[in-house]
Amino acid sequence: MNRQQAKGIIETLLFISTRPLTLERLREVFDREINRAAIKTILDELIAEYQGRNLQLVEIGGRYQLCTRPEYSPWIKKFYQIEKSTKLSQAALETLAIIAYKQPITRVEIEEIRGVESGGVLRTLLEKKLVKVLGRKNVPGKPLMYGSTWEFLQYFGLKDLSELPSLKDKELQDPAGPAESVVQPLCGDINSPQDIEQLRIPD
Amino acid sequence: MSPSSTPFTIKLQVFEGPLDLLLHLIKQNQVDIYDIPIALITEQYVEYLELMTQLNLDFASEFLVMAATLIEIKSRMLLPVIPDPEGQINQQTDDPREELVQRLLEYQKFKEAALALRKHEGHQAEVFTRIEDDSTESEKDLFLDVSMFDLLEAFRRLLQEKAPEQIREITRDEILLIDKLSYILEQLEKRGGKLSFLSLTEGMNHKLELIVTFLALLELVHHRLIKLRQSRPFGQIWIWKDESAASQGHN
């Protein structure tokens, strides 16, 4: 099979799939005769080619999916008679932001930053699968530690955690000069697609 | 006194917590976060809590803790500063407001991050992917949570569809919530743990019966015995047995 054929097959599969596809899933169709790197290159090419089209191919947390472009949403909504989309509450967003930037983080640590009890909102986020339990912290009481999920990336349309807006201390009238501490999102172990696979919540 | 001449007016907005309220007061008074006029802010903070109390609105106990903290800082500010042995007054380390300022700055960072995420959320809400057919949906699908309004809308439509033009007879049938509770669970069991809102109410023509069934649904959701879901806005609402209720280990 030549490359052009493989590309056609991949584009076709992306077109008919209702779910985002991983590199590994795409590889299966070629009986793993094509390596990951080659598939990745094809996907990157497709993403570039779709730049000039009316649909877009996006990568979210190592998975690929054909999507519509935002500018066409009024017509989609009209067609499907969708009035408005549900949004997360302010409390949920704040908590999510803290978890995304500071993961792994415990409930108590979240509450220290927010200054309010956050058990309820955390439970909602877990139910929505936007956050998940990463493990237990090795301190007295062994509290659960939480982190973001693939669904989190999807919900906000982020390719990976490095796409989170950088978190800067606001430059306020600090006599010692502007504070420039930048908190980088912890993305060390969740950058590669394999790890993202592991990030999936067990059903 | 007209509202415009009230020295302290506050739009009753909902604050996520005491830090949120404090940031709002600092912004409203246009004061420097590193040099908070603690007496003024404390006064306004307490006023807000009093207003909430007068309006009979609940606020979290954390708001009271912060009030106490503010008053403590205020009183410490009134104490004379004792110079260290060299006779120097270290403004920076002796400032009783220091810890609060750090907390406010930290919280503000994430409040802004949440704002940025809100933009992403709005953008992503305009992006659509291929939609799966309702009939082929499986448990793994990403369901939208059904809001109270969706339920009310479904109920309203139901009433419109089912309500007869004219009601003549007056019946005094007793419809008990407990009966409907077990009816719903029974139906769920019979149909393998999943059933649609419409099929549940099939054959129910009595308004009171519909109301009680609806209440029973809410009651079951409350007790986490069932889940209500739909795969897309305005789609069919499905009633699921809540399997997770027993196995939920999160605190």
Written overview of the protein:
The complex is a heterodimer of chains A (about 200) and B (about 250). The longest helix of chain A is centred in the N-terminal third of the chain and has 15 residues, at about 35-50. Chain A starts with a helix and ends with a helix. Chain A has helices at about 5-15, 25-30, 35-50, 75-80, 90-100, 105-115, 120-125, 150-155, 195-200, and strands at about 20, 55-60, 65-70, 105, 130-135, 145-150, 165-170, 180-185. Chain A has about 200 residues and is an alpha+beta fold. In chain A, strand 5 (about 130-135) and strand 6 (about 145-150) form a beta hairpin. Helices cover about 45% and strands about 15% of the residues of chain A. Chain A folds into two domains: about 5-80, Arc Repressor Mutant, subunit A (Orthogonal Bundle), CATH 1.10.10.10; about 90-200, Winged helix-like DNA-binding domain superfamily/Winged helix DNA-binding domain (Arc Repressor Mutant, subunit A), CATH 1.10.10.10. Chain B is mainly alpha-helical and about 250 residues long. Chain B folds into two domains: about 5-125, no CATH class; about 135-245, Arc Repressor Mutant, subunit A, CATH 1.10.10. Chain B has ten helices and four strands. Chain B has helices at about 20-30, 40-55, 60-80, 90-95, 100-125, 150-160, 175-190, 195-200, 205-220, 245; strands at about 145, 195, 225-230, 240. Chain B has a four-stranded antiparallel beta sheet. In chain B, helix 1 (about 20-30) packs across helix 5. At the A-B interface, strand 3, helix 4, helix 5, helix 6 and helix 7 of A face helix 1, helix 5 and strand 1 of B.
